[in-house]
Amino acid sequence: MSVQNEMHIFSSASEMRNWSRQQKQKGKRIALVPTMGYLHEGHLSLVEAAKELADIVVSSIYVNPTQFAAHEDFGQYPRQPEVDRAKLKAMGCSAVFEPTSLYVKVQGAESEDVNVVGKESMHPESHETFVQVERLQKPLCGGSRPHFFRGVATVVTKLFHIVEPDVAVFGRKDYQQWRIIERMVRDLDFGVEVVGMPICREQDGLAMSSRNARLTAEARQHAPAIYKALRWAMQAVESGAEKNPGTIQDQVRGMIEQAGGKMDYAELVDAKSLQPILDASLQTTLLAVAALFPSKDSQGTVRLIDNIVINEEILL
Amino acid sequence: MSVQNEMHIFSSASEMRNWSRQQKQKGKRIALVPTMGYLHEGHLSLVEAAKELADIVVSSIYVNPTQFAAHEDFGQYPRQPEVDRAKLKAMGCSAVFEPTSLYVKVQGAESEDVNVVGKESMHPESHETFVQVERLQKPLCGGSRPHFFRGVATVVTKLFHIVEPDVAVFGRKDYQQWRIIERMVRDLDFGVEVVGMPICREQDGLAMSSRNARLTAEARQHAPAIYKALRWAMQAVESGAEKNPGTIQDQVRGMIEQAGGKMDYAELVDAKSLQPILDASLQTTLLAVAALFPSKDSQGTVRLIDNIVINEEILL
Fold it and tell me: Which HAMAP family match (chains A, B) (predicted)?
């Protein structure tokens, strides 16, 4: 453990937990903001929200290998731990949990890569326990990333067990992730409250994401078309002009493809169950999209996700 | 909540957790003994062990539907809550957690049966989160009960989250279960210590089990053949007379079948990984068996399990 002017930095799970327990013994309420680092304004807004919800904010920085597949960008995921620490300290975080690995060390393995899906070690002592939210993990991002939410639910479980927070704050850009964590907490009786915060956007509407840094200059210029398409769809449904999911999805795809995006999906689903809908005017509807844009690094593409909730008042 | 002369009885998860947290605020160390009730000397020995490990013992009584399949004995599993409570009180338990259901209520469902595997509700709001220990759940009992350990790992996770114990005590009659919980705790970073206690046996060697009460008088008389077969195998290996797993398994099966048991499995496996072995003399070996004996109730059979660890000192 090291301390940077009152902000504790833990790399050991047991030291992190001990510190958390000491704070709780003192009656402090703890909020956790889990991140994969490379922090932007969106993350910092989560820390800001967390400060309102608890006495102490702990943020974690960890790029979790089990939510990446072998062909995905685990190795390319941007990292800047020192800049991140400075930002968290400036925001008033009390502690940062920054483990080297959250998975059991596998004999002979040099890197965390061994925990990436498809590269897992088959050593009988390696990590083998996973949490799955069986229905909610299937649609949307679950289609093209079939092991993604298994990895997310598992690592969030681990972080909850290590930090033992009273409340945890997630961003709704990862809308499906937020719903999955919410359901997991309900189903497994975690003593943790889950809060989902609104998406933060750049001035031109692009949802903030650590991955934006990997876009080519041209792609960065065109990517705000995603949000324009989402806004168009929301207005089309809420004004009563359109309610057919198929028609809306086709329009949204067209708008994003015209901006140079290669579509993974654009789907209108029930905002709670994430199941397909027949008529976008009848319930609170989530329009979620994922699209690939050109990347400036050798990996070729950057996968961006975004979403908008339509007819929000019906659910409430 | 009700209190029976100083033993608290909780049916609500939030009241259970609040009480546990109060005890911890007072600096008390809590041990959990999870059970499915119909308590026998084996369970009580776990409570006895738990008292040595902590300041306060909490026992849970809950027949968990998600670890039963539709054709199994969820409905027939013996229940005697009042006798159990009296036993736990006499043993010095401080609290009993006795929930009606640990799963989300499904609209229109009358009973817990709706959470038995194969009878699950497909309601979009029903329980859907499961913990799986992917390698260790497959062999032995995982063969004939493919969803069993998923249900066990899930309900133990829930109990850990509700009671928040410092230590939890399990019996090694359920050897595979103990290994699975131990691995789950390691992999998911639970702040809980897991302790496995030796099997308790009747005078004639039959492993104590709530299910023994369901045997016919004749089956009860013959069932100790299981332990005789296990002892024979241990002596055969440890004396150097036999080391071939196939030969030993055949002998053990024969002995149990001669006593009227119908074999599910008899297997020699590595005592840690539960993987098949080639030579029983080379590592600490688990001989685990499951066999069906005649039942006095209409269900027809009672499934008994038992095990013995051979060459225990090699592992140590």
Answer: PanC
ipTM: 0.95
The DSSP-derived string for A233-270 is: HHHHHHTTS---HHHHHHHHHHHHHHTTPEEEEEEEEE
Asked if the B2-197 domain carries CATH number 3.40.50.620, the reply is yes
The answer to whether residue A123 is catalytic is no
Determine the distance in angstroms separating the CA of A117 from the nearest CA of chain B, rounded to an integer.
Answer: 14
Nearest CA among B261, B272, B282, B157 for reference residue A132: B157
DSSP-derived letter for residue B283 is S
Helices (H), chain B: 13-25, 41-53, 81-91, 141-144, 148-163, 175-187, 217-222, 225-238, 245-258, 312-315
Pick from B142, B131, B138: which is nearest to B187 by CA?
Answer: B131
Architecture of domain B210-315: 2-Layer Sandwich (3.30)
The single-letter DSSP state of residue A293 is E
Instruction: Map out the domains of chain A as residue ranges.
Output: 2-197, 210-315
Do A2-197 and A210-315 show the same overall fold?
A: no
- A189 neighbourhood in chain B, CB within 8 Å: 13, 102, 158, 161-162
Enumerate the active-site residues of B: 43
Average pLDDT over residues B2-28: 92
Tens of pLDDT along B221-232? 999 999 999 999
Taking CA atoms, what residue in A is nearest to B192?
A161
The pLDDT tens digits of the residues spanning A141-200 come to 999 999 999 999 999 999 999 999 999 999 999 999 999 999 999 999 999 999 999 999
